[in-house]
Design goal:
single chain, 5 strands, alpha/beta, 4 helices, three-stranded parallel β-sheet
Length: 94
């Protein structure tokens, strides 16, 4: 999670809301496989929150119904993850 020049680590929407980041990176498997749900819950209360969700398989994103999240394979190279976070944070339709 990044925002206001800070970085943090959370695994719940409540924690994300408390920190108020610009963008967050979540693993689809956190919170007993409900990482996407954590992202969607956080986005309800953090205006403009950009969300990147790490997935294992390219088609894993389709089953989550979260088209406004940026999905990236866990094997992404460092620069690819940075670019995904930048895209998520810059989205204007959030």
């Amino acid at each position: 999670m990044i925002g206001n020049g800070l970085a943090g680590e959370c695994s719940s929407a409540r924690c994300i809301r408390a920190l108020g980041p610009d963008a967050t990176v979540l693993d689809s498997g956190i919170a007993d496989g409900k990482g996407v749900q954590v992202c969607l819950e956080a986005r309800e209360s953090v205006p403009g929150l950009g969300c990147v969700v790490l997935v294992s398989y390219p088609d894993e994103a389709a089953g989550h119904g979260a088209g406004d999240c940026e999905f990236v394979l866990r094997e992404v190279a460092g620069h690819g993850l940075v670019e995904a976070v930048r895209r998520a944070a810059a989205r204007e339709d959030q």
